Amino acid sequence: MHLQKKTIRDVDWAGRKALLRVDFNVPLANGQVSDDTRIRAALPTLRYLLEQGAALILMSHLGRPKGKVDPALSLAPIATRLAQLLGKPVIMAPDCIGPAVQQLAENLRPGEVLLLENTRFHPGEKKNDPAFAKALADLAGPNGIFVNDAFGSAHRAHASTVGVAKFLPAVSGFLMEKELTYLGNALEAPEHPFIAIMGGAKVSDKVPVIRSLLNKADRVLIGGGMANTFFKAQGYAVGKSLVEDDVLDVAKSLLATFGDRLQLPIDVVVADGFKPDAVHKIVALTDVPDGWMILDIGPATVAAFKEILSTAKTIIWNGPMGVFEFPIFAQGTFAIAQALANLPDAVTIIGGGDSAAAVRQAGMTDKMSHVSTGGGASLEFLEGKTLPGVAALADK
Ligand code: ADP
Ligand code: MG
Predict the structure, then answer these.
(1) Which of 173, 295, 329, 352 is 20–30 Å from 43 (CA)?
(2) Is the Cβ–Cβ distance between 25 and 102 less than 8 Å?
(3) 269 lies in which domain range?
């Protein structure tokens, strides 16, 4: 079902305006874009539309300005960076709606690019206010089309992701299409063996995803901080490790129901404190010292996980295996990234903001089939939820 959405290939663009929702929610430092990954990810869609003779009106949110103008969250630095990447001028609008912006949009010619100011400067964005959505949609003129390429915002029913689709035909851009193809295929028609790897800090956040994947995957490998709650549920002493006692019962029931599919670490790296220079050692699960904390998976676990992964045809990975932000606890995460990179015949999909960052730090991004640009959106998708921004797109 996810694969049957209309895309920008299904539209004749000559003489049309595209109202294009992108995810330009990028990090800024000293008034400049400090990481342009998300801008680059939108370029194939932008270039295609420009080649096809469309005029582009781009909209995005940036940060959390709470419905008010906050000059520190202006998209102006993004216009500068985008112009460099596209090699053509990008007109920066003073707002995202209103008479001045309407005039800029009306004057826009084929091949020209207008970037609207932060949609979250208006309270109507998050409220999905129909009047605000209509004012955005009107910018595209009578034969305009809404294009959504912001998968990372598709789990939110806002004016620029859902509301505008009430007033304009809605199709997906290439980035959205790629996300839906990889994540959708993995959930609906994965090639088996299908192995999921789950990690990260909190289990409670991810219980629905673990449950969903346990129902679809052949094996689910658990690492990272979330494994601790399962260890405790099994009766192991975990010292001062991060544990969520309120989901101990959930962990017990998942172990009881899916025990043969769940694979937990067999050894771990423990440390005497949560710090980059902590005293640390590798121990078996039975030997976690009192007062110490588990901060990474151990080498025997890496070997066991690699063995299981070596047969996989489809792999989804969400959540780092350890506190990868500290180099001494990054080895488990980097080893798993390397293991996936060494499986050229498997479809390898990375979901989650920190997981994507870890894979990038490991230098393995290009070796993966797909690194999702959506953190919260990819998790909700993997839970099996319908994302409102996807539902709003026209079916093929
Ligand atoms: P993602 O963003 O990919 O979904 P999460 O946000 O769930 O991932 O988890 C990432 C965080 O989990 C990282 O900041 C990492 O330091 C932390 N983490 C991983 N393993 C542990 C651990 N054993 N103890 C504490 N924190 C951990
Ligand atoms: Mg995260």
Answers:
(1) 352
(2) no
(3) 182-382
**Structural domain contains residue 337:** yes
Q: Whose CA is nearest to atom 9 of ligand 1?
A: 200
- Nearest CA owner, ligand 1 atom 5: 200
Are 165 and 190 contained in the same domain? no
What's the domain count of the chain?
A: 2
Residue 322, domain member (yes or no): yes
Which residues, listed in sequence order, are joined to residue 267 by a DSSP beta bridge? 284
In this structure, the residue with its CA closest to atom 8 of ligand 1 is 319
Taking phi first (over 0 means left), then psi (-120 to 50 degrees means alpha), and beta for anything else, what does residue 277 get?
Answer: alpha
Share of the chain above pLDDT 70, in %: 99
Number of H helices, E strands in the chain: 14, 17
Asked whether residue 396 is assigned to any structural domain, the reply reads no
Q: What is the pTM of this model?
A: 0.91
Residues 271 and 369 in one domain: yes
- If asked whether residues 108 and 216 sit together in one domain, one would say no
The tens digit of pLDDT for each residue in 286-340 reads 999 999 999 999 999 999 999 999 999 999 999 999 999 999 999 999 999 999 9
